[in-house]
Design a protein that fits this description.
The complex is a heterodimer of chains A (21) and B (193).
Chain A lengths: L7 H8 L6
Chain B lengths: L13 E13 L7 H7 E9 H8 L11 E8 L15 E8 L3 H13 L9 E8 L3 E8 L5 H15 L6 E6 H7 L8 E2 L1
Antiparallel strand pairs in B: 1-2, 1-3, 3-5, 4-6, 4-7, 5-6, 7-8
Classes of the chains: A mainly alpha (21), B alpha+beta (193).
């Protein structure tokens, strides 16, 4: 099946997103 | 289980799997039987999305700030960080010994690669561990099938890429059967990069 893949940059960007905070 | 399932929140980015953070601390001179190990390991929490991961991670102590002999474990939900777990019993781990000062960066790079499914080995990955010792630190990544050489080679190759390790870093692959047999996780075949 399809796997959910994220690269490092995407994960780091999510760290600073308003959704995370 | 009576526990409520952890799911991604609204507008959050789901991960391939839910993951659980664990923490353990070893007492000097204490026997390392699997029973006492199980008593010493505590669950920190489970997350289902990238955003939930950061909410845990941002509040956790970095490996460089841990004292004594302590470990963080990050495992797929439902897999205990023990070689005896059904998911791991036929598996093994890549072990990387790090000189002091490298563990925090390497641990972050390792778990981001794992959460982002960068290893491309299907459902083989069980989890990752960082062990802080007095003189060196050790990180490891566990997979389910120790006999699958294509998988262990692919994990090794990705580890080299994501960790950006210094030359001469020692990497060892060890099966859980061997770890349990000699009661020491960090010996055997050595591969020098």
């Amino acid at each position: 099946g399809t796997r959910i893949i994220y690269d490092r940059k995407f994960l780091m960007d999510c760290r600073n997103s308003p959704v995370t905070k | 289980s009576k526990r409520k399932a952890v799911v991604p929140g609204l507008a959050e980015h789901p991960l391939q799997y839910n993951y659980t953070f664990w923490y353990s601390r070893r007492t000097l001179g204490c026997p390392t039987s699997s029973q006492s190990y199980e008593q010493n390991i505590k669950q920190i929490g489970t997350f289902a999305s990238v955003e939930q991961f950061w909410r845990f991670y941002s509040h956790m102590v970095r490996p460089r700030d841990l004292t004594g002999h302590s470990d963080f474990h990050l495992f797929t939900e439902g897999i205990k960080p023990m070689g005896e777990d059904d998911a791991s019993k036929n598996g093994g781990k890549w072990i990387i010994r790090l000189r002091k000062g490298l563990a925090s960066r390497c641990w972050e790079n390792l778990i981001l690669a794992m959460l982002g499914e960068q290893f491309m080995v299907g459902e083989e990955i069980c989890g990752a561990v960082v062990s802080v010792h007095f003189q060196e630190d050790i990180i490891s990544i566990w997979n389910k099938t120790a006999s699958d050489q294509a998988t262990t080679a692919r994990i090794w190759d990705m580890l080299r890429r994501v960790l950006n390790l210094p030359p001469n870093t020692i990497m060892e692959y060890k099966t859980h059967t061997d770890s349990i047999k000699d009661n020491s996780s960090f010996r055997n075949t050595k591969i020098t990069l």
